Amino acid sequence: MARRGLGRLGAVVAALGAVIVGLAASHPAQAGYAALVVDGGTGAVLNAVNPDEENHPASLTKMMTLYLTFEAIHQGRLHWEDELPVSRNAANKEPTKLGLEVGQTVSVKDCVLGMIVISANDGATVVGEALAGGSEQVFARMMTDKAHQLGMTNTVFRNASGLPDREQVTTARDMSRLAMALHRDFPQDYHYFATREFEFEGRHLTGHNRLMYRYPGMDGMKTGFTNASGSNLVSSAVHDGRRLFGVVFGGSSAKTRDKLMETLLDNAFANRDTDPKLVALAAGRPLTRVARARGTGHLAHAGRARRVQVAVAPVQRRGRAVAHAPRQRLAAAHAGKHVVAKAHAKAHAHAHAKGKVVAKGRAKSS
């Protein structure tokens, strides 16, 4: 009897455990936070907080779509004035879009400007499908393969736009590698990232990379936001011939994200460290543990780094991580107690106040 009772108890406990894990897995990933500043000339990491923490890229994903677009243009597989067909899949992308309709065509250049200026999800999908024989899934595999070729070993892409997908993950370090690759490999096209506005089908479209408009020397690159990612930003700026690349993940609002990037770049140009607490505060999160590591590592070129890397672990994760599968490591974190409802609410409220949340139940990537 005792054994039978213990067996029933064990079954109940196991069932409850399965329910808890299932509930955790059913929730979308919540925004983590990270920041990184890299010297574009030496590859030295000047400041880093959670540089290898996996997060959702949101519309930073479009930087890889743009990389593959520029590559195809320079290889002669695409041309700026080529007219590409709009599929139903592309036309149905919400909510930030050019407003393309099924069956129409759109030029490669308009898709590129749409991605950069207004983060057009439909434009990104059109180009991705064109480069992959009509399949966005195939294009996502091409994106992931290229990411790994560029050294972005902790990145997995699942679509061309950055719209929510729990398996689509990257890190601040990986995104800095992509930013530097875009500048290095396509110097004649990099200037497009500084575009503030353009005309499309009689409409005047303006961008929302606000920091670029006011920060001296900043000439790109890309913003991003979904509920699951928080407010993300990759920026590059030049002072006195010195170029820096900055990455911010998980800002509680576009305003706090931009302010943090401004502080990070100011301090890096002045050879000062940035307090990691500021990164946590920008995400609306407490800083719970700081571990300092000697040495900073390099992203591109040889040379001795001058900064101390700061690695911050804000949450305690549960579950077993799989070292070779970034999306599985992130999924394991879903069962931990790191749901940041307050930061989520602040980010959503800010986006709604700016008119960026367009429909109940829809997730934005911008």
Descriptive notes:
Keywords: Carboxypeptidase, Cell shape, Cell wall biogenesis/degradation, Hydrolase, Peptidoglycan synthesis, Protease, Signal. Belongs to the peptidase S11 family. The active site is at residues 59, 62, 119. The protein has twelve helices and eleven strands. Helix content is 38%, strand content 16%. It has helices spanning 2-26, 62-74, 88-91, 108-117, 121-131, 136-149, 172-185, 210-214, 254-269, 276-282, 326-333, 341-353; strands spanning 34-39, 45-49, 83-85, 105-107, 197-200, 203-206, 218-226, 230-239, 242-251, 290-292, 310-312. The strands form four sheets. Strands 2-1-9-8-7 form a five-stranded antiparallel beta sheet, with helices on both faces. The protein has a two-stranded antiparallel ribbon with strand order 3-4. It has a two-stranded antiparallel ribbon with strand order 5-6. α2 (62-74) crosses α5, α4 (108-117) packs across α5 (121-131) and α5 crosses α6. β1 (34-39) and β2 form a beta hairpin. The protein is α+β, with helices and mostly antiparallel strands and 366 residues long. The radius of gyration is 21 Å and the shape is globular. The protein has a single domain (29-353), classed as DD-peptidase/beta-lactamase superfamily (Beta-lactamase, 3-Layer(aba) Sandwich), CATH 3.40.710.
